[in-house]
Design a protein that fits this description.
The complex is a heterodimer of chains A (280) and B (270).
Chain A: E1 4-13, E2 18-28, E3 33-37, H1 44-51, E4 59-64, E5 67-68, H2 74-82, E6 84-87, H3 99-104, H4 113-117, H5 123-135, H6 151-164, E7 169-173, H7 181-197, E8 201-205, H8 209-215, E9 218-223, E10 226-232, H9 238-245, H10 250-264, H11 273-277
Parallel strand pairs in A: 3-8, 3-9, 6-7, 7-8
Antiparallel strand pairs in A: 1-2, 1-4, 4-5, 9-10
Helix pairs in contact in A: 5-6, 6-7
Chain B: H1 22-43, H2 47-64, H3 73-104, H4 112-127, H5 130-141, H6 145-170, H7 174-181, H8 186-220, H9 227-237, H10 241-269
Helix pairs in contact in B: 3-6, 3-8, 3-9, 4-6, 5-6, 6-8, 7-8, 8-9, 8-10, 9-10
The chains are: A alpha/beta (280), B mainly alpha (270).
Bound molecules: adenosine-5'-triphosphate and magnesium ion.
Residues 44-45, 174 of chain A line the site of magnesium ion.
């Protein structure tokens, strides 16, 4: 599994002339789950989108192993993107397609146009789709239209779709910002579990500091397009949070947030080890 | 409920105006009124002529009653069939041709040069009045339904293509981005992230265009492009106003029918 290394990554939005990323460099080890935190406008989404070039970096390198993703032509980029799954805040599902079609759309990079047009995916893709739908708890909704699901269910479809790509790297942009606190936690746990099961490298943008601490081993703090913190999640407290977010009584806020989770109780989907064994 | 602080209660609120500058607001209002008055003054209405015309108009309309479906029954039937065929064929062919042009006119799917070419083509087809296009094609292909069919196809391309392009641009862009991130090809993105989103409205527009094409066929028939319009024209030429009335009624009934049909189809696709 390759190492992900950003080198002096810079993004200037030409229209406004604003530097959303100012020479970002860091390395993510294989299998590491990194939480990217920072105030609104810090450049988290820009950073994550520069990795798979949904946003075109202005300069710098995105090294995936030996390959610089920034240097790829459009065909090579398509090939590279197949191995990079992405999960979105607003789910980005195709509302009028069924859950199954949405999940299978994760395979579009692997099948030819005719197969995708006629929805005749290889049997092994369909098997994998059912396995994933079972894993995320959506077996009863396979042929439902995606817009008939609740927010949490929709994000599960989004997760299954990303994993259909059989990715090595997962880019996750605020997966829980449209969800209630309990569902947020379930979704975060699901993502973290799946990353560990499949040994995926993951970068997760997240607003919620307690959630970040709970599910990521490493946290990178971004402010005004620059890295202001990079370290293990348990160092995330008082002074560091002030550096990232500005003045505020973090100890007390953190306590309150944690209390909330304790009161909510643990309603997450439990992992059945026998089921996991069937996955790859 | 929190107590309202005394210093805050009684404070007025009105909706902020759309145009912030009060001067500009008044200028626009006064300007519009002055222009309207000026426009009416220059209209130069001849009331005497209107009074005469009123009477003539009444006689003219009286000539229509009662509508006569029988005398020219065969011609009316053939004309309707021709028009329906013309409208249907033009709608189908026009829409098939307009899909690539409409997709090419969606800024979020194609590079700028393609966008400009497609948009310009659609702008041209929409600016030319159908009646002029019909005259041109009648000159090119001779009298009859083929000229009408080509005219309506031409008009359909501009109309449907433009609405399709606007729909694609206005649709939710997130699925498109997700498909791009998954490594889908351009055609696959079109099939998965665009088509499902624009389909319901496109079907509604297609049915509406069919209805429009039928009505237009009555108009362009007058310049020789066949169909019910030609029948109508003949009836007028021969001063057979009861037959003309029958034709107009038939047109109205068919348009009404298509209205219900389109509502029904839209419900089906949601
Ligand atoms: N397309 C764009 N054109 C111009 N400026 C942009 C564009 N997208 C983002 N920006 C600017 O770049 C900066 C970083 O934006 P970004 O969306 O990456 O922030 P973020 O950290 O994801 O914020 P949030 O937590 O609110 O999602 C912001 O100042 C934003 O205004
Ligand atoms: Mg963001």
């Amino acid at each position: 599994m390759p190492v992900l290394r950003l080198e002096k990554l810079l993004k200037r939005y030409e229209r406004t002339g604003y530097d959303a990323l100012k020479s970002i460099s860091f390395t993510v080890e294989p299998g590491q789950i990194v939480a990217l935190i920072g105030p609104s406008g810090a450049g988290k989404s820009t950073l994550i989108r520069c990795v798979n070039r949904l946003v075109e970096p202005t300069s710098g390198k995105v090294l995936w192993g030996d390959v610089d993703l920034v240097g790829l032509n459009s065909n090579e980029l398509r090939g590279a993107r197949r191995k990079i799954g992405m999960i979105f805040q607003e789910f980005a599902l195709v509302d009028r397609l069924s859950v199954m079609e949405n999940v299978l759309s994760g395979r579009l990079g692997y099948v030819n146009f005719w197969q995708s047009l006629t929805r005749r995916f290889p049997q092994k893709d369909i098997d994998e789709a059912f396995r994933l739908l079972d894993r995320v708890g959506l077996m009863d909704h396979v042929d439902k239209r995606a817009d008939k699901l609740s927010g949490g269910q929709r994000q599960r479809v989004g997760i299954a779709r990303a994993l259909m790509q059989d990715p090595d790297l997962l880019l996750v942009d605020e997966p829980t910002a449209s969800l209630d606190p309990k569902t947020s936690r379930q979704i975060m746990r699901l993502i973290a579990e799946l990353c560990r099961e499949r040994k995926l490298t993951a970068i997760i943008n997240i607003h919620d500091v307690p959630l970040a601490k709970m599910f990521a081993e490493r946290v990178i703090g971004l402010k005004d397009g620059a890295v202001v913190f990079d370290g293990p999640a348990d160092q995330l407290a008082g002074e560091v949070l002030t550096r990232i977010y500005g003045e505020e009584d973090w100890e007390e806020a953190g306590q309150r947030a944690l209390m909330k989770f304790v009161q909510l109780g643990d309603g997450g989907p439990s992992v059945d080890p026998t089921r996991l064994a069937g996955l790859r | 409920m929190a107590e309202v602080a005394p210093s805050v209660s009684g404070r007025a609120w009105t909706r902020p105006p759309m145009i912030a500058s009060a001067t500009l607001r008044w200028c626009i209002l006064v300007g519009t009124i002055v222009y309207l008055i000026a426009a009416f003054i220059t209209l130069d209405v001849n009331w005497q002529r209107i009074a005469q015309g009123w009477e003539r108009g009444q006689r003219f309309l009286g000539g229509f009653a009662p509508p006569d479906f029988v005398t020219r029954g065969d011609a009316i039937f053939d004309g309707v069939l021709e028009s329906l065929w013309m409208a249907f064929a033009a709608t189908v062919v026009g829409i098939i041709l307009s899909i690539p042009i409409g997709v090419g006119g969606a800024r979020n799917l194609v590079p700028p040069p393609v966008y400009i070419v497609c948009r310009s083509f659609m702008a041209i087809t929409r600016t030319l009045p159908e009646i002029l296009v019909a005259i041109l094609f009648v000159k090119l292909f001779g009298f009859g339904t083929f000229a009408g069919f080509v005219t309506l196809t031409f008009a359909t391309i501009g109309y449907f293509g433009k609405l399709l392009a606007e729909d694609i641009e206005a649709a939710n862009q997130a699925p498109l981005e997700a498909m791009r991130a998954a490594g889908a090809s351009w055609l696959q993105r079109l099939n998965y992230a665009v088509q499902p989103l624009v389909m319901p409205r496109a079907i509604g527009i297609a049915i509406y265009r069919l209805d429009m094409n039928f009505r237009e066929s009555a108009v362009i028939g007058i310049v020789g492009a066949g169909g019910i319009g030609a029948t109508l024209n003949t009836a007028f030429d021969r001063y057979e106003f009861p037959s003309a009335a029958a034709i107009l009624l038939v047109i109205i009934i068919i348009v009404l029918g298509s209205e219900y049909l389109s509502a029904f189809c839209r419900r089906l696709v949601r």
